[in-house]
Design goal:
Elements lengths: L1 H25 L2 H28 L11 H36 L4 E5 L5 E4 L1 H7 L11 H4 L3 H9 L6 E3 L9 E8 L3 E8 L1 H37 L8 H29 L7 E3 L1 H16 L3 E7 L4 E4 L1 H17 L5 E10 L2 E8 L21 H6 L6 H11 L3 E7 L3 E9 L3 E2 L1 H6 L9
Parallel strand pairs: 7-9
Antiparallel strand pairs: 1-2, 1-5, 3-4, 4-5, 6-8, 8-13, 9-10, 10-12, 11-12
Bound molecules: adenosine-5'-diphosphate.
Adenosine-5'-diphosphate (ADP) binds next to helix 10 and helix 12.
Length: about 450
């Protein structure tokens, strides 16, 4: 580059010297220099014009064949252009491959803009959701997918888990939709057909429900005979022990079947629980009485009512959940232990807790406690007549009421199981007593 510039300066100097000599021979010196300089400027302007013309019509013209500094500038432009062209082609190829691979995905993919408007979708998404190209591009996704579950999902903006909907056109189909936010407010909407999984799940649930139902009658007959035998005064004393064991096992089986049926019933409906007013303080007073009777003075059962309000929900389900928690506290707390029931209300909603100073639960078991048949110590649970389904039932009941279960426990010290209900499930004491039949305000 430096050489080119030296050459350009030398050329300018040469032109000026030539002008000087010309001026010396044919007139005043300054006229000769001015003429030479003028010609030099005209030549540079011509080169500039040719460069400009070539830049404008680059696709049709060859680069101008000028040398020196202009030639160097043109070569630089050509190099830059080639590099840009190369990157452009690579980018286009990458984009094509990306589109082709996304189009070939077995799941539907929809690219959404800042306002959830459709930017692009693959063929599978078009099939699953009935989208049309190009008429649907640019439309907001919630105008096209109007399932209430999906509209709620978008509004809540909690995209940790997918939402399952039934597209209106295909009543037998279930679609799982998952938003994946990225970039500046954009997101991908992934759509998957989960009909098969749903059907298998429904078959499994039906099977459990039917099997439990079928087992119930024979078990009732066996239990009945065992009860009669146990009361028979002429029974050989050698049979007293075995019959007692058989009765206790039959009771356990009855408890398991009852819990399985309860769980199946809860799972059968995906809708949230109804909004019947429930007098929770009265329910808890009753539970405390029953608990005391069951504990037979072996445990102290106390009730702390910090609020008079109740809940809107399904009374039987709520009672079943609270009873399960109280039963567990009594089961897993040694003699002379303390079980404390508490009901309180705050800005976040309503809270019921059962605290005991029993055997507690090692921390590693806490995350899995609500799984069906999960027991920390299966021997102890069985000996206490536990089905291993109680906490699964509690979790389901709370889910149906928009609530959640929180478990705190220290091994050897005790446990606290808390049920948290959202504020819109709260039924103020005044509403409950004044208008028990009134329609509640649902949020
Ligand atoms: P189970 O019928 O076995 O009690 P649950 O689903 O009600 O089944 O409880 C699951 C397991 O959680 C129990 O087996 C027990 O190990 C543990 N657990 C539940 N409540 C308590 C508690 N209050 N204290 C200690 N362990 C508990």
């Amino acid at each position: 580059m430096a050489a080119v510039w030296t050459f350009a300066l030398a050329r300018l100097a040469g032109v000026l010297v030539l002008g000087l000599i010309l001026g010396l021979f044919i007139g005043p010196v300054w006229v000769g220099v001015l003429v030479a300089f003028g010609l030099y400027v005209v030549w540079q302007l011509r080169n500039l014009y040719m460069l400009d013309r070539w830049l404008r019509l680059r696709s049709q013209l060859d680069p101008p064949g000028v040398g020196g500094i202009w030639g160097e500038v043109i070569a630089q432009v050509v190099r830059l252009h080639r590099r840009k062209q190369y990157h452009k082609q690579r980018l286009a190829q990458l984009f094509r491959e990306l589109r082709r691979s996304t189009a070939a995905l077995p799941d539907g993919v929809i690219m959404l803009g800042r306002h959830h408007e459709i930017l692009w979708f693959n063929r599978r998404a078009a099939n699953l959701l009935g989208l049309r190209r190009p008429s649907d591009v640019g439309l907001r996704i919630d105008n096209l997918i109007r399932a209430p579950e999906f509209v709620r999902y978008l509004k809540a903006a909690d995209f940790a888990a997918p939402v399952v909907i039934r597209p209106p056109a295909a009543t037998e189909t279930y679609l799982s939709l998952q938003m994946v936010p990225y970039g500046a407010g954009q997101s991908l909407l992934l759509a998957r057909d989960v009909t098969r999984e749903r059907r298998l799940e429904a078959m499994r649930k039906d099977f459990v429900a039917n099997a439990s139902h079928e087992l119930r009658t024979p078990l009732t007959v066996i239990s009945g005979y065992l009860d009669t035998l146990a009361e028979d005064s002429g029974l050989d004393p050698a049979w007293t022990g075995p019959i007692r064991d058989m009765r206790s096992q039959a009771r356990r089986m009855n408890a398991i079947i009852a819990d399985l049926l309860e769980l199946s019933r809860l799972e059968a409906t995906e809708e949230e629980a109804g909004y019947e007013p429930i007098d929770v303080p009265a329910m808890l007073a009753r539970l405390q009485r029953d608990g005391r009777a069951r504990a037979q003075r072996r445990h102290e059962v106390t009730l702390e009512l910090d609020a008079n309000d109740g809940l809107y929900g399904a009374p039987q389900e709520i009672e079943s959940a609270f009873t399960n928690l109280l039963d567990n506290a009594l089961k897993y707390t040694p003699v002379d232990g303390r079980v404390q029931l508490r009901w309180r209300v705050d800005a976040g909603g309503a809270h019921f807790s059962v605290a005991d100073n029993g055997i507690g639960i090692p921390a590693e078991h806490l995350p899995r406690l609500t799984e069906r048949f999960y027991r920390v110590d299966s021997g102890r649970s069985r000996s206490q007549g536990g089905s291993g389904l109680g906490l699964a039932i509690v979790k389901h009941v709370l889910q149906r009421h928009g609530g959640r279960l929180e478990i705190e426990s220290v091994e050897g010290k005790g446990s606290t199981f808390s049920c948290h209900f959202p504020a819109h499930r709260l039924c103020a004491a005044s509403v409950r007593t004044d208008t028990v039949d009134a329609q509640p305000d649902r949020m």
